[in-house]
Every structure is written in C-alpha cells, then in structure tokens.
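Weekly modeling sync, notes
Attendees: S.R. (lead), two postdocs, one rotation student

Agenda item 3: backlog of single-chain predictions. S.R. asked that every request posted to the team notebook include the full sequence so nobody has to chase files. The rotation student volunteered to paste the first one in as an example of the format we agreed on. Action items at the bottom.

Example entry:
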Amino acid sequence: MTIRENLEQLEQKNLSPYAMHSVDTKGRSREEEQCDIRPVFQRDRDRILHSKSFRRLKDKTQVFLTPEGDHYRTRLTHTLEVSQNARTIAKALRLNEDLVEAIALGHDLGHTPFGHAGERALDRVCPLGFEHAEQSVRTVEILEKSGQGLNLTYEVKDGILNHQTKGMPETLEGRTVRLSDKIAYIHHDMDDAIRGGILKEEDVPKSICDVIGYSTGERLDHFIHDIVTTSYEKNDITMSEPVACAMSELRKFMFENVYTNPDAKSEEKKAEVLIETLYDYYRKRIELIPEDLKKLIDRGESKDRVVCDYIAAMTDRFAIAKYEEIFIPKSWHG
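Predicted structure, as returned to the notebook:
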C-alpha cells in the first residue's frame, strides 16, 4: 500500500461524513497516473502554489492601488488570509483541508491588475465580457504551463468558479472558502482603511459592533467561531442569522465608506482608462502578444478573449510599464 493510499484511508476514518474525500473526486479533465505520496487535492494545492499566476498575485491590487506602505494587503496576502481562515474552519469541522487550501489559493488567479477596477474595464470593453472567477478557472484549465493548464480536479475548479456570492460550490470545502473570502476582505480591507486614514475604528456603527466586536481582530474571530458553531455536524456552511445580518451591514458600510470613497479610489478611473487603452491597442495589434497566447488563436480561441488573457495576467507594475512604453514619449538622448 502506498503512502497516498494510507492517507486516503485516514481521510475515510477521520473526516466528517459531509467532507469531500480524495477517493471520491470526479477526477481530472485528462487522466493521469496518481502520485504515490499525495492525494489528489494536495497535489492540486501544490500545482497552484508553484504556478506563475500565483506568484504574480504579489503585485496585484487588493483595494488600494499600488500602495506605498509595506503593510497594505495585495491580492497575494488576501489569498493567504482566505486560505488561513478557511483552513481554521475546515479543521474544526473535520473537512478536507487540502481541498479547502487548493480552492483558496486558486480562487483569484485570474484577477486583473488594479483589482476590481481592472475587472470592470475589461468587462466593459471586451464584447465577450469578463469575470475574474471564470478567468481563474480559465487560467488553471488553459493558460498555465503554456496552454497545457494544470489539469486540476473537478472539485477544485468548482470551488474556484463559485467562490463569489452569486455562486454556490458543490462541496462544503468550496462553501467554506466562499464565506472565508468574504470575511477576509471585510476584515483586512477595514484594517487597511484604518491604516490609511480613510476610517477610524469608532466610525463603525455601534449596532454592528454590539453583535460581532469592537475591533477588526474581534470581528474576524467572531465570524470564524460563528461559522464553526453554526455549521458543526451539518451538511452546510453557514452563519447564524444575527451574525450574517451584521456582516451584511458591515459590508454595506464598507462599500459606502471605503470601496466607493473618493480619496481611496481617486486613481481607479485612471487605471480603468489604462486597461481599456491597452486592450484596444493589443486587439488591433494581435501580433504583439506572447507566442503561447497566439497559439490559442490558432486553436480557435477568440482574439478578444486572448487579449483579455494577456491583460488580465499582467501585474499592476507590468501594466503601467507597458502603457508607458507604448504611449509616453521618451526623452531624446542623441
């Protein structure tokens, strides 16, 4: 018996009856030989962690565009915080931590530069539309490894695709990540807003604080404890009604005071114009995109979609550099 098979047996013995067991996966798009050490979801986690798209997250905006301070979150640190929240919940509920971690680490791989500003811009100019969860699945299915993709399991891709409010993953592990994503960004975006002078702790309405706590740390702890106690030994991942209502109110408060704040978002229109301009430029000069993407066009992919692939994969820094290279005049050196 291999080490992997021993680990799979331990899953059967130790995990909740509602957990997703590695042996019950619906499998991969392309069949491949099993690893003798790692169960399938651990293997998926490793593939995501070693991917280029994962490394690029360190230079992509979370909320504040290209912040100068060292302690503001990026898309990578957001991803790691989602993963940690989800693993804490999964361990307490005896769910499959490998599956949870793989979904969490992969959920934003297709996110654009400049956060949701970049996403809005591509969705506006691309006739096919653009949505980052779908792009994350496209990234792991097609774009990684020069068009080969990572060949992940069905359950990981399902969790990535449905991590937003409008989706509902098939597994409890996916649903854990879905809620962990929300509590992570509410927690750290408020923490960053307080650091940046956009908010003060006392600005948070008392009616919310009375339910979930009077500091960012207290609220995060309360969210996680509530999910665990409400979901314990149930075939669902959910919050109690009072905490769910408080989170909804806190999210509304964040949209009114941070996500649409003119000081915090003053540069977003410029970022959107930059993304739209790059899209138009490369759509008219398709020969300038990388060779591995041009091969997708040869395989029948739409030029509009492939230009989105190129721009969505850019980091903030790379997008700005490309814009300057193409559109900003350079000094004459003689």
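Discussion: group reviewed the output briefly. Residues 172-195 form the longest helix (24 residues).
Action items: rotation student to repeat for the remaining queue; S.R. to check formatting next week.
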